[in-house]
Design goal:
Blueprint: H1 3-9, E1 18-19, H2 20-33, E2 38-42, E3 50-51, E4 55-56, E5 66-67, E6 71-75, E7 81-86, E8 100-104, E9 116-119, E10 123-125, E11 131-133, E12 141-142, E13 153-155, H3 163-171, E14 176-180, E15 185-190, E16 194-195, E17 205-206, H4 209-219, E18 229-233, H5 237-248, E19 253-257, H6 268-274, E20 278-282, E21 284-287, E22 293-298, E23 304-310, H7 314-332, E24 342-345, E25 356-364, E26 369-372, H8 382-385, E27 389-393, E28 404-409
Parallel strand pairs: 1-21, 7-8, 15-18, 15-19, 16-17, 19-23, 21-25, 24-26
Antiparallel strand pairs: 2-14, 3-14, 4-13, 5-12, 6-8, 6-9, 10-11, 20-22, 22-23, 24-28, 25-26, 25-27, 27-28
Helix pairs in contact: 1-6, 2-7, 5-6
């Protein structure tokens, strides 16, 4: 009997579902244990990666006294005789005597010997061509080290790289960053009933996850190529085994859609058994999103790969993404475990008994409130399209108006700031 046939014939033992918070902690830990190697990336290519080491500056910031206004660098009491001009990018000669000045531009190096900078708008010219005026009491230049001192740690390891960080790195004199390699992800779409184009008809439905899941994965920092999306995969065990084995050859994470149950055409569990995978999480006590799983495989090269089994219902699949895939990817990239913001419920949200309820909500950021949205069935995507995240209603509770609850934000593009 073949391995695939034996796996298909094996009896099914359904494990008790893991608690939602426990499952997130567990997958984050295994991701962090398998954190991806550090690589060097030029600043232009670093966006969306994660710092593998702290960002430190190579020099004081600013590195030299820098004028913060257009005006006159003066020495001694006025009026002052003009002896030159200092533009940004030049090294000025010292002011060697009292009663002299040089015109200075914003950002230019302040000459040695200058006592003050007189703003251009506060100055006048005498009939003799001298500069007159009274400098303001506060210094009009930035001192070396005002922003940071050479060697100072500015940003810790584990920070996502965004445009603001890239600009800071450039100002520190860096040309590249030491970052974690981006996780490579693939998607296998299971289900003979799926159409890849046109409207649903004749008992077949349109695949909504094949186009959407890669975009979600990119927002979590993954690299996903069009060739990494495969499907629909035929509803046979050999086809599933071949597809998953092929995807694992290049991917750090393979997401699958559908097949997480134990029905006659649900082949994910036998496929994982045939490939020698072990479960990190096998079912989670959460609604919607049941059942979902995360499995782990060790390759011949010693590198660990992961398989995230997402349910076939579209909203349930996204619940699985935010529940299991998001913390796993945080660990793989060496990022901290995501801390969930809090919001106040503006309307009641029912509990789900012994299960965690992830309820789609729209956030009023100014008021700090969460408002449930409509059209939130596990097979629906309309509510998701208008939502900002999921309110977390813990087991055995109900979300009353005014309750403070955690919110799982939907992922953002690299560089976007969360609320």
């Amino acid at each position: 009997m073949s391995t695939e046939t034996a796996a298909a014939a094996a009896p099914v033992a359904t494990p008790p579902p893991a608690g939602w918070e426990e499952a997130r902690s567990r997958v984050y830990a295994v991701g962090l244990a398998a954190a991806l190697p550090a690589v060097n990336r030029g600043l232009a290519d670093a966006d969306g990666h994660t710092l593998a080491e702290p960002l430190t500056t190579r020099s004081d910031l600013p590195a030299f006294p820098t004028s913060s206004v257009d005006g006159w660098a003066v020495r001694g009491n006025g009026p002052w005789r003009v002896v030159g001009r200092v533009l940004a990018g030049n090294t000025p000669a010292p002011l060697a005597a009292d009663g002299i000045t040089v015109e200075i531009a914003t950002g230019a190096m302040v000459p040695e010997g200058a006592d003050a900078i007189l703003r251009i708008e506060d100055s006048t010219r005498t009939a003799e061509g001298l500069v007159a005026g009274t400098p303001r009491p506060a210094p009009e230049w930035r001192m070396p080290g005002e922003e940071a001192y050479a060697g100072e740690e500015l940003v810790p390891a584990g920070t996502p790289v965004d445009p603001a960080l890239i600009g800071l790195a450039a100002s520190c004199g860096l040309d590249s960053l030491r970052v974690r390699r981006q996780p490579r992800a693939a998607l296998l779409v299971f289900g003979d009933e799926l159409l890849t184009s046109g409207p649903p008809a004749a008992g077949r439905v349109r695949d909504a996850l094949g186009p959407a899941v890669p975009a979600w994965l990119r927002r979590y920092g993954c690299a996903v190529r069009p060739a990494d999306v495969v499907g629909p995969v035929a509803d046979t065990l050999p086809a599933h085994v071949a597809a998953l084995r092929g995807a694992l050859a290049t991917a750090d994470l393979v997401c699958t859609t559908g097949g997480t149950m134990h029905g006659p055409v649900d082949h994910l569990h036998p496929t994982l058994e045939a490939l020698g995978a072990d479960y990190v999480v096998n079912t989670v006590a959460v609604r919607p999103g049941f059942p979902m799983l995360l499995a782990r495989l060790a390759g011949a090269d010693g590198r660990v790969r992961f398989v995230a089994g997402l349910p076939g219902n579209p909203q349930s699949a996204i619940v699985a993404l935010v529940s299991l895939v998001a913390p796993l990817l945080a660990g793989l990239q060496g990022r901290p475990m995501p801390v969930l913001p809090q919001a106040t419920l503006a309307e009641p949200v029912p509990g789900r008994g012994d299960y965690t309820h992830l309820a789609l909500v729209r956030l009023d950021r100014a008021a700090g409130t969460a408002h449930p949205v409509r059209h939130v069935g596990s097979a629906m995507l309309r509510g998701l399209a208008g939502a900002d995240g999921f309110a977390v209603i813990r087991p055995g509770t109900s979300g009353e108006v005014g309750a403070r609850v955690p919110v799982v934000p939907l992922p953002l593009l690299p560089g976007e700031r969360s609320w």
